[in-house]
Amino acid sequence: MLISPTPLSLICALILCMPLAVVFTVTSPTNIPLQIPKAHRKLNLTPLPPPPPPAPLPLDDLSLLRIAARVNSRPPRFKKPKIAFMFLTTTPLPFAPLWQRFFSKAPKSLYRIYVHADPRFPYEPPFSGVFAGRVIHSKPAQRFTPTLISATRRLLAHALLDDPRNSMFALLTPSCIPLHSFNFTYRTLAASKKSFIEILDNEIGAYDRWAARGPDAMLPQVSLEEFRIGSQFWVLKRKHARLVVSDQRLWSKFKLPCERWDTCYPEENYFPTLLNMRDPDGCVPATLTHVDWTGRVDGHPVTYNASDVGPDLIWSLREDRPRYGDEVNVNATDWSGSERHDPFLFARKFPPDAIEPLMSMASDVIFRD
User: Fold this and answer.
1) Interval 68-86: pLDDT, tens
2) Beta strand pairing status for 235-237 and 82-89?
3) Distances (CA, A) of 215 to 64, 159, 223, 240
4) Which among 63, 65, 71 has a CA at the least distance from the CA of 247?
5) What is the separation of C-alpha 236 from the centre of its chain, rounded to a whole number of angstroms?
6) Cis peptide before 19 (omega within 30 of 0)
7) What SS3 state is found at 177?
8) For 52-139, where are the alpha helices, taking DSSP H only?
9) Nearest Cα to 268, choosing from 189, 190, 333, 212?
10) Can you tell me the distance from the alpha carbon of 230 to that of 225, in angstroms, rounded to the nearest whole number?
C-alpha cells in the first residue's frame, strides 16, 4: 500500500538531496578539460603567403585606356577622397623643394602623385622625395601636336587604375607653384561636386583653331559651334577623368595632325570641348591655375622674373578672380559666374631661379592661409 507524501516528508527529501546537487554542479562537464583529437592538437602558425603583385599595366595606350575606362566612376563611400596631383614635365621639377614642403604635413592617405616625364630629356638630378618612384611609363610629348593630349590621358589612366580613392585629378607643369597650404587646397577641392575647367566660347581665332587640321576636318564629330577653348590646366572629378580616358569619338578628330602649326593647340581645345559637349552642368567653367596673358600673342603666358617674386605677388595672385566662361551667357542652373570667386590654388609661370625667394617665404606667406 503506497503512502501519500506529506509536505514534511517532501522537505526532508529535498534537504537530503542538496549535497548531491552541489557535487553534481562542481563536477559538471564545464570544468572538464576539452579532449582535442591528436590530429588537431598542433596549430599551423605558418604565415599566409603575400598576395601576388598586381599585373603591370599595358605599355600601349589603347590597352591602357580600355582598362581604365572600366573603373568605377565613383570613389568608395565612407572614405576620405584623395587628390591626384599629375605633373606633365620635361625637366626634373625645379620647384620640387617647394612641393616637398607642400606635401610634408599632408596625410599620405589624402593624396597621390604621378609624373609624366618625356623620355627624350635628361633628368638630373633624378626625381626624389615625394616624387621618387612616381614616374609613369611616359612617351614623347611635343607642343603643337596631339601628343600632349595623349600624355595627359596616360596620366589620368594611371591615376584611375592606381587608386580607387582618387577623386580629383589636378594637372600641373614644372613651372607651377602652389598658392596655399595643402589643407586649404584639399578642403577646397574635396568640397566641390564639380570639375574646374576653363570653357570659353566665341574666342578670337576659334575658327582658325577649329580648321587647323584642314577645312571641315573636325566634322561631323565637332562642329564650329561646339568647339571650345580653355586652359590646359584643370582639376577634374573622377567621373570626368573616366569620361576622358573612355572617349574615342572626339579623340578620333583631335588626334589628327595639324596642317597649320601656328593655330594648333589641341590640348587647349580637346578637354573643354569634350566636357562642354558631354556634361557642361557638371563643370565650373574656370581654371584654378592662375596665369597672366597680358600683352602676349606668341602662345606663351607671362613668365615672372625671380626679382618679381615676393609676398605682394603671392597675395595679388590669390586675390585675383578666375574668368568664368563667357560670364555673360553662363550655362548653369545652380549658380551664376558673377556670384562666384573661387580661389586660385596654383599659379604659373615661374622660372627655375625663383626657387630661392619662393622657399624663403614658403612658411610665412605661401602656406599660411
Assistant:
1) 999 999 988 878 999 999 9
2) unpaired
3) 32, 36, 11, 30
4) 65
5) 7
6) no
7) strand
8) 61-68, 96-104
9) 212
10) 15
What CA–CA distances, in Å, run from 225 to 259, 269, 284, 356?
21, 13, 20, 46
C-alpha to C-alpha distance for 166 and 85, rounded to whole angstroms: 10
Q: What is the distance between the alpha carbons of residues 45 and 41, in angstroms, rounded to a whole number? A: 12
> Residue 31 carries which DSSP code?
G
Question: Do 213 and 177 touch, CB atoms closer than 8 A?
Answer: no
What DSSP designation does 366 have? I
From CA 230, how far away is CA 256, in angstroms rounded? 19
Bin 93: left if φ > 0, else alpha if -120 < ψ < 50, else beta: left
Q: Please answer whether residues 65 and 157 qualify as being in contact, where contact means their C-beta atoms are separated by less than 8 angstroms.
A: yes
Question: Across the strands, what pairs with 200?
Answer: 229
pLDDT tens digit string along 300-357?
789 999 999 999 999 999 999 999 997 654 444 444 555 788 999 999 999 999 999 9
Yes or no: say if 95 and 177 are a contact pair by the CB < 8 Å rule.
yes
Among residues 159, 128, 152, 126, the alpha carbon closest in space to that of 138 is found at 152
Q: What is the per-residue pLDDT across 12-50, written as a single tens digit (0 to 9) for each?
A: 455 555 544 444 444 444 444 445 455 555 556 677 777
Secondary structure class of 302 (helix, strand, coil): coil
Handedness of CA 253, 297, 290, 85 (dihedral sign): positive
Relative orientation angle of helices 238-246 and 61-68, to the nearest 10 degrees: 140
Angle CA(144)–CA(150)–CA(152) in degrees, nearest 5?
100
Rounded to 5°, angle at Cα 241 from 70 and 197: 165
Quick one: DSSP state of residue 8?
H
Beta-strand relationship, 166-172 and 82-89: parallel
**Kindly report the CA angle at 86 between 81 and 89, in degrees rounded to 5?**
170
Q: Cell numbers 609676398 label which residue? A: 311
At position 208, the amino acid (one-letter code) is D
Return the closest-CA partner of residue 152 out of 233, 82, 231, 262: 233
